[in-house]
């Protein structure tokens, strides 16, 4: 599929032409603030790291039920099937686990090269991904920063998003320790703007802040071509230049808290909110600033997670309505439409990640599901990974070797445990009984 320009918006009933300053009719039912996400603990007690491992030889499993959850969004067709021919089937799964701060929730996991970054409340731990050896733990003494919501990487630096509305920038030293560089917005950026009244915006009654500041928890970060994109519960999207850490633009993006963001290589940015909408942002031809180019409406509750496929032509969105919607751009269309839903989780979808043509989803039902695209845009659930005792809050995945059929799926849960599932794939399954529920 080719990536095409955005010219229209898709609502629940129709697709209509949209310019960047157009408005979309809002549903009569107001969005509920209580649908943000599963709440995070803010305790700062620290415990020692522990690890354990289990092999798939000890695995108990059963055939995957064809309809494991209640149907949601009945107007959206299901994309699930059990095709006779698939690229992969799951042949083996092994799991290892780490608990950085026992009984403290894991709020974010991220991988950079051979390093695994784990955020547990306000502390960020860095592990060797192959040996699970703890290399560094930082920000643990700064309990005022609140829980870490997101970790991303750009130009050799580590960017972390925090509950206290700040984005912090770190540098790994030669000793694999992390040094604090600055917080966004920087002091220099503030000094450039604090004098002029026009640089202040109202964030609540009788309270004003510089437009470069987030006014609530920063919930997500995305990176593309030297730009950092941040979203917050303050309903704004901000664009930062990584080279000098300067805020370039701030957009009132949604009518409720923003929970998720992802960016395509062509510069298109997608944001998902508790207002049940996904909005698409891009720079119009010849413009330097981002503008709204589409609003995608189909979810019936807060959007919590977004992911793009490898070709950046398919968008996946997960919400509290328990469904993962699949949005596609086709050669015959110049807008994105819902092609169907992936159903199976019994509770809210909290995180999504796509790697190697595989989609992984984590849910408040404590499970991780692995999906693969089959023929004619249909999808199959290859495996259900069970073992977490609380909601799966964050996911990341990486292929261990370019020529290997092993993918490491790393899940972080509110139970305080990080699990690394090494999933081995083999040839096409011969029957529906090859689709298993793995309980490790």
TrEMBL record:
Point out the coiled-coil segments of this chain.
Answer: none
Q: Which UniProt keywords apply?
A: Repeat, WD repeat
Q: Where are the WD repeats?
A: 251-291, 296-337, 342-372
Q: Which PROSITE patterns match?
A: PROKAR_LIPOPROTEIN (PS51257), WD_REPEATS_2 (PS50082), WD_REPEATS_REGION (PS50294)
Disordered, as annotated region: 26-66
Work out whether the entry's keyword set contains Repeat: yes
Pfam families referenced in this protein's UniProt entry, alphabetically: WD40 (PF00400)
User: Which ranges are annotated Low complexity under compositional bias?
Assistant: 39-66
Family matches, as SUPFAM superfamilies: WD40 repeat-like
List the Gene3D superfamilies hit by this protein, alphabetically.
YVTN repeat-like/Quinoprotein amine dehydrogenase (2.130.10.10)
Which PANTHER family did the record assign? F-BOX AND WD40 DOMAIN PROTEIN, F21J9.19
Q: What is this protein called?
A: Uncharacterized protein
């Amino acid at each position: 599929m080719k990536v095409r320009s955005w010219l229209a918006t898709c609502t629940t009933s129709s697709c209509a032409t949209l310019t960047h300053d157009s408005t979309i009719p809002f549903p009569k039912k107001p969005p509920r603030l209580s649908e943000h996400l599963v709440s995070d603990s803010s305790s700062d007690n620290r415990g020692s790291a522990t690890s354990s491992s289990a092999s798939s030889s000890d695995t108990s499993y059963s055939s995957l039920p064809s309809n494991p959850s209640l149907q949601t969004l009945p107007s959206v067709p299901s994309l699930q099937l059990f095709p006779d021919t698939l690229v992969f089937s799951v042949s083996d799964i092994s799991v290892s686990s780490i608990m950085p701060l026992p009984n403290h929730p894991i709020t974010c996991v991220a991988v950079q090269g051979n390093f695994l970054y784990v955020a547990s409340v306000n502390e960020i731990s860095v592990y060797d991904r192959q040996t699970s050896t703890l290399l560094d733990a930082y920000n643990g003494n700064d309990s005022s920063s609140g829980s870490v919501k997101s970790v991303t990487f750009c130009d050799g630096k580590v960017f972390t998003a925090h509950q206290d509305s700040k984005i912090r920038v770190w540098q790994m030293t030669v000793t694999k320790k992390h040094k604090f560089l600055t917080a966004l917005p920087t002091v220099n950026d503030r000094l450039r703007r604090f004098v002029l009244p026009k640089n202040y915006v109202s964030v609540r009654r009788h309270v004003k802040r510089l437009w470069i500041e987030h006014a609530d928890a920063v919930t997500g970060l995305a990176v593309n071509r030297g730009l950092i994109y941040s979203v917050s519960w303050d309903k704004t999207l901000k664009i930062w230049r990584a080279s000098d850490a300067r805020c370039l633009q701030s957009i009132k993006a949604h009518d409720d808290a923003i929970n998720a963001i992802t960016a395509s290589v062509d510069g298109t940015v997608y944001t998902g909110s508790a207002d049940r909408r996904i909005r698409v942002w891009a720079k119009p031809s010849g413009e330097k600033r981002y503008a709204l180019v589409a609003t995608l409406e189909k979810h019936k509750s807060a959007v919590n997670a977004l992911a793009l496929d490898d070709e950046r032509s398919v968008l996946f969105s997960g919400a509290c309505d328990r469904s993962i919607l699949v949005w596609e751009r086709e050669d015959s269309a110049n807008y994105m439409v819902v092609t169907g839903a992936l159903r199976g989780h019994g509770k809210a979808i909290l995180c999504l990640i796509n790697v190697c043509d595989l989609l992984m989803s984590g849910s408040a039902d404590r499970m991780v599901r692995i999906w693969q695209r089959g023929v004619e845009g249909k999808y199959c659930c290859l495996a259900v990974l069970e073992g977490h005792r609380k909601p799966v809050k964050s996911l990341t995945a990486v292929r261990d070797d370019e020529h290997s059929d092993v993918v490491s799926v790393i899940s972080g849960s509110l139970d305080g445990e990080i699990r690394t599932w090494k999933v081995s794939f083999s040839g096409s399954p011969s029957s529906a009984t090859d689709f298993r529920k793995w309980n490790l």
